[in-house]
Structure formats: C-alpha cells, structure tokens
Design brief:
Structural class: alpha/beta
Largest sheet: 6 strands, mixed
Number of strands: 8
Radius of gyration: 33 Å
Order of helices and strands: EHEEHEHEEHEHEH
Strand content: 15-25%
Number of helices: 6
Shape: elongated
Strand order of the largest sheet: 2-3-1-4-5-6
Distance between the termini: 138 Å
C-alpha cells in the first residue's frame, strides 16, 4: 500500500503446452491412372503427338500426299484435346516392310507418341503393327486392305476402309456376271496387298464357276512384263 493506494504487481509466466491443431489444407486432387498399356504424360504447354505414316516419295507419292492432306484437314478441324494442341509427326513409310519397320521403331522409341495414323500400304502396316503391339501404340490405317492386317489377333490394328475379302469378291462377281468373263489370269506384285487380293479374287471367281488359268507374281519396280504376259 503506497499513499493510500494498493499496488498489485502481475507477473506473466509463459508455459509451452503441446496442442494438436488440425489445419485444413487445400490439396489438388490427382487422378491416379494404372494402365497396363502405359501412360503418356503431356506437360503444360506441350503437344499431343500423333504419328502419320504414308508414302511421300516414289511412284505412289500422289496417293500418300493425298492421305497426308486429308490428315492435315482433320488436324485443322480438331486442333486440340482438352486444351492441349495436337501435333502431327509425318513420316514416309515407303510402302515397304523395311520402310514401315524403320518408322515404327522410331515412333516406338518416342515416349510422347500416343497413336499412329497409318500405314498406307499393307506391306508396310503389317510388319510395323508387330512393333506397335509391343509398344502399345494403337494404329488406324486409312488404306491397308490385306485381310491378314486385322486378322492376326493384335490389339493395336484398326482401319477405316474395306478389306480385300470385300473388294476381291466384288471384282470376281463383276468379271463373271457383268463382263461375262469365264477365264482369268492372276498377276500380283508379291506384296501382302497384291497377292492377298488376287487370292481372294481367285477363290470367289472359282466359286462362281470361273476358271483361273494362271497365278503369276512380278517384282515391284519392274518395268518389263513381257515374260509373264507371254506366259
């Protein structure tokens, strides 16, 4: 007590007491994908890459360039997926097994390729499909018609055109019933497409009552066919 007033001194003692406090934290949900075929991750600002394999050089380039032009129109019409730009990686498969295999190995080694449009020719598509099957890269061919292309039990092979069983049978029916031809000679280029097509034609033609008088093969690139034509 000082001068009639009471003075009280307060002393503050800080004591640390452990307290568990739950603090809400916003966490962005992440979709966990477990895909046995593998996952292609597209980073922000990157593109979704789709391969295109057609024929860009040589005697069949006019057909292949048409296919590439059609693909470019499709890319123009559908330029993005979920905000990611779609990019076309075009390659020349050369309508051959060697060319198709080389391109397929190149795409299979690129972890950013999600799918392939192609190949143009069955002789290129079939050996390439074995590589794509191992790499789990789906392919959609615009023009490979060999029956065996989609008949081998592979998961990656698709096409948007008819197969040779359809066109070979139609050709045989036309030759016999419209042209009135009862005999036919088969000449093919020893490719998956060429030989497969005439085999279907032969079977359908003979089933309709026609007679196949020859079944000959030539080599792609040959210009002189006098020997086989003489036969």
């Amino acid at each position: 007590e000082v001068a009639g007033e009471t003075v009280v001194k307060k002393e503050v003692i800080e004591v640390e007491v452990p307290v568990e406090v739950e603090v809400p934290v916003e966490v962005e949900s992440v979709l966990v994908v477990n895909d046995p075929w593998g996952i292609v991750t597209v980073a922000p600002g990157d593109t979704i890459k789709i391969g295109l394999v057609t024929v860009l050089t040589g005697d069949l380039a006019n057909l292949g360039i048409d296919i590439r032009n059609g693909a470019e129109l499709a890319f123009d019409e559908f330029p993005d997926v979920k905000g990611f730009a779609v990019e076309m990686l075009d390659e020349d498969g050369q309508c051959s097994g060697e060319g198709g295999t080389a391109v397929a190995n190149k795409f299979a080694a690129n972890p950013e390729v999600v799918a392939v449009v192609g190949h143009m020719c069955s002789g290129s598509s079939e050996p390439a499909s074995v590589i794509y099957e191992r790499a789990h890269i789906p392919m959609v061919s615009p023009s490979s018609t060999a029956v065996s292309f989609t008949a081998r039990g592979l998961d990656v092979t698709n096409r948007v055109c008819w197969n040779d069983r359809i066109q070979g049978t139609a050709a045989a029916d036309f030759a016999l019933n419209t042209l009135g031809a009862t005999k036919a000679a088969m000449i093919h280029d020893q490719s998956s497409y060429g030989e497969g097509l005439v085999q279907v034609f032969q079977g359908a033609f003979e089933e309709l009552g026609g007679e196949v008088t020859a079944f000959e093969g030539v080599t792609v690139g040959d210009k002189d066919f006098r020997a086989v034509l003489t036969t």
